[in-house]
Design a protein that fits this description.
The complex is a heterodimer of chains A (179) and B (107). Chain A is mainly β and 179 residues long. Chain A has one domain: 6 Propeller (Neuraminidase). Chain A is globular, with a radius of gyration of 18 Å. In chain B, strand 3 and strand 4 form a beta hairpin. The two termini of chain B are 26 Å apart. The chains are: A mainly beta (179), B mainly beta (107). Strand 1 of chain A pairs antiparallel with strand 7 of chain B.
């Protein structure tokens, strides 16, 4: 349930630009027919000429003063500022299981990244990759501490973790399902 | 960091750095009073550490849980995407003190 200080809430997928030199707002218009859903508590970061957005919440039921039910997202979107177009990028799918016991490192791509909100998202590696950390899954009973890397060229999420953390992550995931 | 000026109070507030010189914040002014329409943009000069409040009309409503980034193709612009738009940031008459307490706890 989302209360916002007594305000009347409408979740939006609009984009605005504010110019600090002129102190003027402008509404950014989209080209193309594909746009992300209205979303809040998502995270975004810039790499190259694009904005990358992951996760957040969509409002299912808007009652008089608040958003009464939300669905958490695990979708990745990019917005190209040069073309003003949105593109939905791939969710993580099982593409690689690489266990290197010599270095006690497990590289694993799970079926999907848990839908979440309240996570962190940053651009790294000279704009070639994004890093996602933590957040809260749908049931709000646990907090996540997993780290995912999105390779922009390959449009794919991969999870890398030290071996002991692997079991903790799996346990956390299972708890999130059965709680 | 010690700063001077009106320090913004933002609920789920977000911001970004422009030109390695300014930190620009925007979001949901944390207030239950019928204020902040249009919501201001807060700019911190990183050299002088002075906050400036810019009341610019024609922009979005207060945005709770939005995204603010620097425009990669225009270094003077911040980009605001998505969020919960506050249509009427006043205290609804049917709300009780308990509602307001829950409101503070829920966000």
């Amino acid at each position: 349930m989302l209360y916002l200080g007594g305000g009347y809430v409408v979740v939006t997928n609009q984009m605005w630009a504010f110019n600090v030199a002129s102190s003027l707002w402008r509404n950014v218009t989209y080209s193309g027919s594909v746009v992300p859903p209205p979303v809040f508590r998502h995270k975004g970061t810039v790499a190259g000429n694009s904005l990358y957005v992951f996760g957040g919440e969509v409002c299912n039921i808007t009652e008089e003063f608040y958003c009464n039910a939300t669905t958490y997202l695990n979708t990745t979107w990019s917005f190209d500022f040069t073309t003003s177009t949105w593109q939905e990028l791939t969710n993580a799918i099982m593409t690689l299981v690489n266990i290197n016991l010599r270095y006690w490192v497990v590289k694993l791509t799970l079926l999907f990244i848990q839908p979440r909100t309240g996570h962190s998202l940053a651009t790294v590696n000279d704009g070639q990759e994004l890093v996602l950390f933590g957040g809260v899954p749908y049931n709000n009973k646990i907090q996540l501490n997993d780290i995912w890397v999105f390779n922009i060229a390959e449009a794919n999420w991969t999870q890398s973790m030290a071996f002991p953390i692997f079991f903790n992550s799996i346990l956390t995931y299972l708890l999130s399902i059965f709680q | 960091m010690d700063t001077v000026g009106v320090i913004p109070l933002l609920n789920d507030g977000v911001g970004t750095v422009l030109n390695n010189a300014q930190f620009v914040a925007f979001g949901d002014p944390y207030s239950v009073a019928p204020v902040d329409f249009p919501p201001p943009v807060y700019i911190l000069d990183l050299a002088t550490r002075v906050w400036t409040t810019v009341d610019a009309a024609g922009g979005p409503l207060s945005m709770h849980g939005t995204v603010v980034v620097a425009n990669p193709v225009n270094p003077d612009e911040i980009i605001v995407f998505g969020g919960g738009a506050m249509q009427n940031k006043t205290i609804p008459s049917r709300f009780s003190i308990l509602d307001l307490f829950n409101s503070s706890c829920s966000t």
